[in-house]
Amino acid sequence: MVISLIIGFILMIILTVLILIPFLIKKEETKISKIFCQRFINFWKCVHLDKPAILRWNSEGATVAGVTSTIGSAANLLYYPYDLVVDWSYSLFVADRNNNRIQKFLRGSSNATTVAGRANGIAGSTADALNSSGFLLVDDDGNIHISDGGNNRVMFWKKDAVQGTIAAGNGTLGNSDNQLNRPHGLTYDRQSNILFVSDYGNHRIMKYFYNSSSGILVGGNNIQWNAKVFAFSISFIYNPMNDQ
């Protein structure tokens, strides 16, 4: 009698497990399906879509670069900072737009080092200079892509280099495949070595293969205010999963 009860209890447990397994699998699939991951230049960011984010902000901000309400070209000053990137070492790269340079602030430091452009903030069109440095990308090795808007080009600056090389555009304003008009946002696909450029003044998105002097149109067609194009293309997100 006892043995029969034990066998019956075991069979009940097995039956219960068999009934619950499909629900557990479905629940796990649902959980996975509600996670969205996006690849950035230095990291992946994943968000649980079914769990709203809880953000906690300090009541007062802390200045980590520049001096409040003070412009200038000294190592601790900025002049209309436009874009920024934090790398794996928590160094802060700032596109110091009106100083025509890229500044690097080590974590905890109030003084920066100029890593692209001229430290004195003077604009120029030579390989060692920038003109209205806008958006930037920084890779894991410290190399930088910079949208050099005033020079209608995108510059590539290797780490510790004293001058850059042109990665997109030829330095002259225009709408040909090898020209740009005030480039803004940048995205780089490391898997395919393709640089995407938001060609602001030409109302289009261009892509450039590595070491290619001419780009390929992927969105817009140089004409403003058209349903098939962009009014002013400033920035964008590239999804390598869908190639768009």
- What's the number of extended β-strand segments? 14
CATH class of the largest domain: Mainly Beta
Strand arrangement, largest sheet? Answer: 3-4-5-6
Q: Topology as H/E string?
A: HEEEEEEEEEEEEEE
Radius of gyration: 25 Å
Structural class designation: alpha+beta
CATH superfamily membership of the largest domain: TolB, C-terminal domain
Distance N to C terminus: 69 Å
SSE diagram, text form:
Layout: H1 2-33, E1 35-39, E2 44-48, E3 81-86, E4 92-96, E5 101-105, E6 113-117, E7 133-138, E8 144-148, E9 153-157, E10 165-168, E11 183-189, E12 194-199, E13 204-209, E14 216-220
Antiparallel strand pairs: 1-2, 3-4, 4-5, 5-6, 7-8, 8-9, 9-10, 11-12, 12-13, 13-14
Architecture overview:
- It is a single chain.
- By secondary structure, the chain is of the alpha+beta class.
- Helix content is 13%, strand content 31%.
- The protein is built from one helix and 14 strands.
- It has one helix at 2-33; strands at residues 35-39, 44-48, 81-86, 92-96, 101-105, 113-117, 133-138, 144-148, 153-157, 165-168, 183-189, 194-199, 204-209, 216-220.
- A hairpin with a 4-residue loop joins strand 11 (183-189) and strand 12 (194-199).
- The longest helix is centred in the N-terminal third of the chain and has 32 residues, at 2-33.
- It starts with a helix and ends in a 24-residue tail after the last strand.
Features:
alpha+beta, 14 strands, 4-stranded antiparallel β-sheet, 244 residues, Neuraminidase, 13% helix
Question: TL;DR of this structure?
Answer:
This protein is α+β, with helices and mostly antiparallel strands and 244 residues long. 13% of the residues lie in helices and 31% in strands. It has a four-stranded antiparallel beta sheet with strand order 3-4-5-6, with no helix packed on it.
